[in-house]
Amino acid sequence: MGRPQSSSLTELAKQQFYEPNTDRSANPIIREQWLAAGELDRSPRGWKSVGPSFMGLGYHPSAPLPRVDRATTLGMHMVDKGLGWEHHNIEYVPFPRGYKDWGIEVLKHHNFHLMGQEDRADFIYGAIYCSLGDYSASPALLRALLETWNSHTNTFLLPCGERTITLLDLHKMAGLPVDGDFYEEYVPPRWELEPSLLLYPNFLLDLLNTWDELAVGDEVKFSTWCDHFYNKEKSPISFSTVREERMFVAAFIALWLCCFVVVGSGPHIRRGVLVMAAWMALGRQFSLAPPALCSLYYSLRLISMHPIGPAYTNRAWPVHFVIGWMGLYLRKVFGNMGKRAHLPIYKHKYSAERPSMTNTMCRTPDRFSPEGAHDFFHKRTNIAWHPYEFTNLKGIRQLERTFMISIRRGMLPWRRGGSKHDLCIAEPYHPDRVAQQFRFDQVIPFLPLPSLYTMDDVGIAYAYWEHLLRPAQDEEYTIPDSSRSGRFSVAWTEWWVTFIKPFASVWPALRSGNASGRVSYAERKEKYAQHNSHLSTRKICQRDFLVVREVAVECHEQRIAYVTATSEKRKNALMRILRVYLDHKAPQIQMPPLVQPALQPSHSSQQDQAAGSSSTCPLLIDNPSAQERMADNQVNMGCNSGAKRHSSQVTLTQEDETPAAKRKLECADEAITTNFATDFVPPVNATTSGVEHLATSSAVGYLDLDDFEDDAAAYCIAARDGTCPPSLPFTQPFVDIAGFDGGYVPFPSDIGQAIPSVDGLNDDLVTSFINDFEQPSAVPSSNTGTLVAAATPGMEAIDAIFLDAVDKAVEEALKGLDTMSLRDPARCQQLEDLSNKLPVSISGVLRVKEMLVQLVTLSRHLQLAEGEFERNTKQKELEVSQIMQEKENQAAICMHAAQEIKTVNERRLEKEQLVASLAAQLEEATRALNGLKQEEERLGNICTNQADEEKKLNDALSTAKKSLDEAASALQDKLKNLTHDAEGLLISLKNWRSVPN
């Protein structure tokens, strides 16, 4: 075996042994159940119970309780780590110059394998049409929405509940098929690409060689690819061979896959995509919605968990799907539609409605401020809960299965193999968390599944695909009517308020827009820029075994045999298709024989198996949709036209003509999708009641009801197409059709006349017939009906001997026969065989033969009655089981209500105790308050008295000061007088001699 990236998932599944988990807990289904209604409100508790219990539609079984999980969003990560939206620009995918013109060219002139063949269904025509639109959004609104993203659950956490982009959304808004063969990107080894081996389309090798020629540094840019295949071509584009035309279409599909559907690894053509593109150019249908949604979830995980900031990666991602989803679910966020001159007129001969992407957008987004954007999501009426109707899904197998797959909880695999690396990215898908988007009732969801990013166990993707696309089996689902809208259970509302609480606490911090983080951008970049990736690959561990499980060692050989058988059935069907295209290119090449022979006009079980007989179908097949389509494996009737088809010529025509290489890729194998949007049917040899019809002796044959002259043959073909019920009587006792698997078993043509209504049947009537056989046989007269003797003595002896033998045979047949054993089909067949052996030429045996026929008729009556009784019994048992289930559900609801009552009582007692405690504290505080008031009054009186006393003291002080001033003034006058007297005395003393006596 070659490099890992050179092996398909089928080969890896034979080495890495994983299988889907069939436990009911791993596969919840929608079922009716009694629910107590709840509602979110603005009360302190956040929820309330409304109305009585109702019979709802919700996921079953219930998720285990108690729950301790809490919300974790990008907004919480930004607030906690101090991140901001620095340098943020919406990273649109860079579509190359010429992409839209190339897409229009393919849709107009090369759409032969792009349309579905089922009425109102489509393949990828509508999805390619959607990729031609222009999609833009308000940056503030997009940032506010991304801040609500929970990378653990892959859902948006809005105040009114969880929402997400579902598989059904990708189908309805973008036209991507949900059902089909497993999508995987890998590069097969060179030797397998030899066209004569009939393993891959004969132009795949040319595509890979072109990629190698255009690669620079092991990468081929979108623009380089588009320039090579389209921009350099001169208009009008023409091709000399069918191979060139298929390669031209496959090259565009590869570009479309990388830049619109499964976006990743930059604006480059991934080498592993070329295998898928080549097959799709031939009309092989793949399941594209799961890997597309996986790439979107993975991109949102990279944005939400980067340690530097959500805008640091600057990586193109499928934001157009988010914008299309916003156009569906958010009201009044886009303006009027602008001019769409570049878009062609949508022409699809089968699909009654086209994908929306709000009809290829081209709308100017409304502007929002950061505050206005956050306030927008807090208003419930701004969100459309049910943007499209489900009634148009009913009655169409492809759309009904799309809905069934979309409501399954599981993992979305994206196997991405290239020239150097091979890895598996698997993202969890949780429709049980957004049940109201499907008009179901919301109950508590299961714990989220873990994501996986591995390079060691890529083969697990095979088991993920098997689990997601498994057949319906006992799974029950109902497409709700448009009048139904889901409700909340009271248990969910109580859980949700607790779950969302951590995120609700950071809403005010996010409302301002958070343009710059708390930690500087340069500091964050310096700290984490050396890390190439914050998401690293890992090995599978025990927590990954939820929807899948390991295969026991003793079952490895059985698993290998099963995978090999399913792959061989697909390979054989595809080889028939590749043989035709190879013949167009090089009819002289010697073709290897198919593993199973082509259909021949035979009834052998081996050839039935080669034709894709449903009896040889395993329980799980790679393409479950084909198992459900038991009919239409070989003979395929046109959907819209009853005109007879003729062989086409290998010439290319204008737009309005059917291309020469237009073939129906309808395979005689239910293990491969029969929904190829083409017109090739391998030759069919049918034998119907001795009438043989050969469709054509050429390599390409077309079959129509008008080709059949025989009514029985035409009936059998029409019955396979669902246009004729199995009620047409045939001239032969049994009808068998070689090579047909229409789901009808051969049946006698005269049963309708031989077995009348079972009304009035009773044991006495049956016993009377049995007793009649115990009477001696006599010879009735052919004229009068009375018993007479034989005319000839010799013949009388012979008749007597023969009648004795008949008596013994009848006695042996009646031995142990009663009303119970008469119900045994084996005894009925024994009586019928005896009746068929009795000749009608002997008159004495005629009555015996008539009574045997009547007894056989009664036996069939009894069998029918017993079968009806068993069916009624099973129906009653089922009804009783349902009633018991409802009773258990009601008991569970009552138990839950009793538990809630108990909890409420406990809370009431707790609050009463708290009230009593608070009352005591209040009384004590009142007393203390009164004391404080009295003390305050006493202190106030003291202060008043002190003020009066202070006033008196101030008056006394003023009086004393005045007296002091007066005294001081008198003292100063006295001192002045004394000073004057002293000065006079001094002068007198100095002159006492000169003064005469």
Fold and architecture overview:
There is one protein chain. The chain is elongated, with a radius of gyration of 45 Å. The chain starts with 8 loop residues before the first helix and ends in a 7-residue tail after the last helix. A hairpin with a 6-residue loop joins strand 3 and strand 4. Helices cover 43% and strands 7% of the residues. The strands form seven sheets. A four-stranded mixed β-sheet has the order 9-12-13-14, sandwiched between helices. Strands 4-3-15 form a three-stranded antiparallel β-sheet, covered by helices on one side. 38% of the residues are buried. Mean pLDDT is 76; it is low at 584-763 and 772-793. With 997 residues, the chain is α+β, with helices and mostly antiparallel strands. The chain is built from 28 helices and 18 strands.
| Largest pleated sheet | 4 strands, mixed
| Helix coverage percent | 40-55%
What's the β-strand tally? 18
What coarse outline follows from CA principal-axis ratios?
A: elongated
End-to-end separation: 163 Å
Mean residue pLDDT: 76
Determine Rg (CA atoms, Å).
45 Å
